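Most newcomers find our protein records easier to grasp once they have seen one. A record pairs a protein's sequence with a compact description of its fold. An example says more than a description, so a record of this kind follows:
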Amino acid sequence: MSVATASTAPGAAAVAEVPRGERGATRVADRVVAKIAAAAAREALRAAAEGARTGAHATVTVRRRDGRLPFGEAHVHVTVELGHPTPIGARCGAVRRQVTARVRELAGMDVSEVAVEVERLHSPLERDRERVR
């Protein structure tokens, strides 16, 4: 059995001419970006309110553009559940900042838009009723 080395393998010269950082491609799947965004939203909500419910999930649309970061540009839609009363605008702003930072850091993508939708508000009375059942 013969093992071809880089110098004797067919096409070895072509591989050697391409700089290491320019070979191949990496693509981050939309569902991976969605998981990163949802985790980041939960992080932001957990940091804002100790012991609060942190239900968050995300849907993501990814658009890739030349000249941007190598992995493209993401448009993120995050749906969250918040406790009531709470400063909704401040919580949504914290979610936007955290999602933008984490997607950029972990997926290498530019985030041009983060839309935060508040799906549900939970009151303290509601939480107490759920525990009694």
